[in-house]
Amino acid sequence: MEIAHLQHPYNYYQESLLFGRYINADHLQPLLKKHSGNFEIAVIGKSVLLEDIHFIKIGTGTIKVLMWSQMHGNESTTTKALFDLLNVFSDHETLSVQDLLSKVTLGIIPMLNPDGSRGYTRVNANQVDLNRDAQMLTQPESKVLRTCFDSFKPHYCFNLHGQRTIFSAGATDKSATVSFLSPAQDADCTVTITRKKAMDVIVKMDQVLQEYIPGQVGTYDDAFNLNCVGDTFQTLNVPTILFEAGHYLQDYDREVVRGFIFLSIWTALVEIAFEDVAGVREEEYFAIPKNDKLFYDIIIRNAKLKIGDVHQIIDIAVQYVERLEQNEVIFIPKIEKIADLRNFYGHKEIQANGHLVISESQEALKEGFEIDFVFINDIKYLLNV
């Protein structure tokens, strides 16, 4: 993937020490040490379980951009992309990097929720969703972010997340591989100049991404929730962009998607640094399709199942349950839905052609079953990633 204004293709900058879905604070330590000579790196707080929360400051420009990742501990793709980005900023001989860092100052919290990251959970060690704690600030991690926001005084915020495989880019058979949102600033979802500036940057990112993943970019619904961090920062008149790393075909480790997130962040920074973000692309923003929930990981089509005392021809949806086992995320196939799914799509589809679908024990399949494979017409079909 060739990226404008960069001397090398993306894979040159990709951080080889980070791979897969499970990224905790231990993975970051050698990388923070590696970059300590290039950037200002400080501990700015502690998690509930007293793990360090780090802040990385880069650049000397007057435009300040604050970004944070792994607010939800099981959303690690954007963390990988941030360390890919740090490898770019370590390349001091590249003129485009020097120029950009003379325009912007970056403040990066690479892992806001180290306890959730270690446990591979969305919530922190107190079982609190930090993205619903922006007003009450009941958690130490929430307080760290807010204190950082108040002291850094950013002109833009990047709220970096990951999303499930269920999302489509609109009512289509295209997966929402990357999604964005310019959060609402009030209950009426007024399109303010603050929101418009965030929209301008999103439109630019979408234009670039369309070259690589046409039709696979979506936006989230902008229903207002002041307890969410993005909505809170937007109400404080700081253009805030939600980034969501989604699914690309067969990319359950999110290694392809990390490249698209990297591309998105780099594109946004170049736009902010060198272009006049005037807030004039509202119509283009709203033309990006809104996310819908039209995907399952697997759909077995036209399956013959015994339901009650009769056999029916019906569809079977399988969704993966992500489970941490021995420091590795395992994807467990689970029967999510048995229904007429003609209006839904599978990232993988198996055609049963009216044949009986059974488990290894030959029992009837039911919603909620965890199952590694099925037999269709005496042929074994693996359901694992």
Automatic annotation (TrEMBL):
Matches recorded under InterPro entries: Peptidase_M14 (IPR000834)
Positions annotated as active site in the UniProt record: E244
Alphabetized Gene3D superfamilies for the sequence: Zn peptidases
Database matches in Pfam families: Peptidase_M14
GO biological process: proteolysis
Domain Peptidase M14: 8-267
Family recorded in the similarity comment: Belongs to the peptidase M14 family.
Protein name (Swiss-Prot/TrEMBL): Peptidase M14
GO molecular function per UniProt: metallocarboxypeptidase activity; zinc ion binding
